[in-house]
Amino acid sequence: MSTARAHVSVLAADVANKIAAGEVVERPAAVVKELVENALDADARRIVIEIAAGGRQLVRVADDGTGMSRADAERAVQRHATSKISSARDIDAITTLGFRGEALPSIAAVSHFELVTCDRETGKGTRVSIDGGHDLAVTDAGRPPGTTVAVKNLFYCVPARAKFLKTTATELSHIGRFVHGIALAWPHVGFAYHVDGNVHFDLPPQSNDTPFLDALGTRLAQLRGGDLVKDLLPVAHEHEQCRVTGFTSTWSRTVMTRQELYLFVNRRPVMCTWLAPLVKRAYGTLLAADRYPYSFLFLQVDPHDVDVNIHPAKREVRFGREFAVQSAISVAVMNALKTGSGAPLVAVAPGDAAPRQGAAPAEPAGTAATALPRPSQPGAPWNTRLTVDEWKRLYGREQQPQTQQPASPAGPDAAAAPAAPAHHATQPHPAAQPDHIRCIGQAGDAYLIAELAGARNGIVVVDQHAAHERINYDRAVKAMAERNAPQQALLLPVTARLAAGRAAVIRERLDDLRAAGFSIDEFGAETFKIDAVPAYLDTGALECLLEDIAADFLQSNTSTRVEDIRRKLALVLVCRGSVKFNQTLGAQEMQRLVDELLETQTPWTCPHGRPTMIVIPYDELEKRFGRRG
């Protein structure tokens, strides 16, 4: 009797480890991630990362953590050996960065691997070396308490894997992003990063007594420079399900990529596909369509409410109450923008200043702004822009009587800004009291020039089209929400015939168009009759306007939320109905435009995210003309 041949067999351990490495160790950055996370879980206070040839030749991570005994070091390179969980129940509330026990054996299976560790309690050291998953060797070794793992010649025994690695520059970019992110998440830990023998940074640990947000601000300044930090707004919001802290940039500091959006969940760097659109929505019309802010957001949630075990590399997580988490992040960012964003100050190139005879060299533009006080100091802002309340307090015509004298600078501005010259402080123009913005004129039939008076004397340049767009947009959105948009009736009804596809879009949006101020009805299969339009809209070329509205909705993935649809509609309408470039305005029109702009909630950007104005302080002008040192 013949025996059937077996087709199913159990893979050898080294083969299984190589397969596991394909999931856990995608590229050198994954090796760095696993080793650094192990160091943090070992309570390290200083971590040194060394890279050679983009991680192909060498990845070395050394720490001063608790270290391991000889027995633990031998077990650590076996699959599913971990000190971080002991039962299936522990997986429901992971509090460490690692927990599976797969990283070290997977890395050792595809490299020349060496681990040197010293147990902090016993002071005894151990060396474990493995070549491509084979030839395990364990010997005594000497080193200070902590662990060093060196990974050499990654994927040397898996050529098929090695050939899919990208260029050295690309691999270094992935490593660098992780290292920067983890250094931000753990500001109380010191990090050193060396690439091909060059020290990229060596950051000391912040004191354990330093509040996290202060420590994060310092670490950001160390990694990214004061030029970015001065444009960051602190984020802090408490929700019953979670807590959001961190920083997000002002509307004027943006990039064209999502790569500057960082999210950390219980200090674990994670990726969420919904983060970028969520943050963009929180900024609303402060951002242009192709721009993204710098955001460093830290989410603290109950470990029971987040599943970190859904991705082989633990890059993604799943929330038990995702809507609550998204809502908390959105509110946190919006609150930060309400309290901190404002009008940008002009930065003039340092070389443009005329040196004053006998004076010290002029301070480069922006230097004072980068030397900001820490947020823990009372009244210390993280940026120098005016908030909405400051605009209305300093420049709102209705806030103070015209006879009030200029107030002396106080608070955080007093120390940073020199006193105004005597001819500005003691002899103000009669029409330029400290509570007023006086329009001086129009430049190029496109820009309004106005004079500011008050605690921040200076000149403001206003983009007339962008400013009118903001005014009309805010009015349109409010009117649509309240369904009381002012209309202008047409002398004769206008009919507009559209292509079938675009007519279908307009048909779906009839109720929204009526809320916006249109009196519009169907007048046949693809034809519409218009009897009235919004009061601010030009009554010409209405058929083209409907075509534009339909095309815009067809080209963009607008959400189905009524608020989003109406905001989108308002964007299209106000662009057509606002003051244009090359349009001459009278003195009263210019003044009214500026006054109405400052009454809006966000006067410093148009609905598309472009600036409406820039401010040139008088002390800046005086420095540039050599009148102030």
| Rg (CA only) | 31 Å
Distance between the termini: 104 Å
Helix content: 25-40%
What is the overall silhouette? elongated
Into which percentage range does the β-strand content fall? 15-25%
Total number of helices = 21
- Characterize the quaternary organization of these chains: single chain
Q: Which architecture of the largest domain would the CATH scheme give at its second level?
A: 2-Layer Sandwich
Task: State the strand order across the main sheet.
Answer: 5-4-3-6-2-1-7-8
In the CATH scheme, the class of the largest domain would be: Alpha Beta
Number of beta-strand segments: 24
- Global structural class: alpha+beta
Number of self-contained structural domains: 3
Average per-residue pLDDT, rounded, comes to 77
CATH 4th-level superfamily of the largest domain = Histidine kinase-like ATPase, C-terminal domain
* Largest sheet composition: 8 strands, mixed
* Uncertain ranges: 347-385, 394-435
CATH fold descriptor of the largest domain: Heat Shock Protein 90
Describe this structure in words.
The structure is a single chain. 34% of the residues lie in helices and 22% in strands. It is of the alpha+beta class. The chain folds into three domains: 13-203, Histidine kinase-like ATPase, C-terminal domain (Heat Shock Protein 90, 2-Layer Sandwich), CATH 3.30.565; 212-340, Ribosomal Protein S5, domain 2; 350-465 and 584-624, 2-Layer Sandwich (formyl-coa transferase, domain 3). α6 (168-185) runs antiparallel to α7, α9 (275-283) packs parallel to α10 and α15 packs across α17. The longest helix has 19 residues, at 322-340. It is elongated, with a radius of gyration of 31 Å. Mean pLDDT is 77; it is low at 347-385 and 394-435.
